[in-house]
Amino acid sequence: MKAKISGKTLELILGDITEQATDAIANAANSRLAGGGGVDGAIHRAAGPTLANECARIGGCPTGSAVATGAGNLKARYVFHAVGPIWRGGGQDEAKLLAGAYRKCLELAEEKSCKSIAFPSISTGVYAYPLEQAASVALGEVAEQLARSAGKLHRAVFVLFDGATLAAYETALRELARKRKDLQLD
Ligand code: ADP
Questions:
Q1: 24, 76, 121, 170 — which has fewest CB within 10 A?
Q2: What are 81's strand-pairing partners?
Q3: Portion of the chain with pLDDT greater than 90, in percent
Q4: Range of the domain at 116
């Protein structure tokens, strides 16, 4: 599914984020940048050891933010290690922190003159953020930042790993298109 917002593209696809040729790839990292399972493990395996070395040098990242490294053997130029919140029932600023993680990635993308960026579904795996709510926060934030962007960034793609996650993001994107007059579904 694809949408247009102020001349930029917001796209949802089923796939493996490690295979994306976007300028930047966002990772769902932990705050110690220590490497883990899920998408983080897949990105580190595909990128090679330079990624863990760079992460160790940086040392950590607060929840709700992101840090940039190179991308080792990946096709991308950068990996933005974004730290989403662990779901603790919704009363611990989870939505704000999740939006912050996406926002910081888009800021890093602008700073590094990226034209395109790929995102996984941050926090909806081991961190157990309810999928429908996470999809709504993620797309709301990315759409808002794309709408505001005056830089080079023209494409953001969510690379979703299974059918249920893709379906939840598709529902959330349709919902967002009803709310935002500047967002048109293709
Ligand atoms: P978190 O700890 O932030 O919840 P996870 O890695 O556990 O992160 O899960 C986040 C999402 O990433 C889940 O939807 C999971 O299915 C997905 N995922 C796992 N591997 C990949 C991959 N190679 N490409 C894209 N998404 C992936």
A1: 170
A2: 27, 67
A3: 97
A4: 2-185
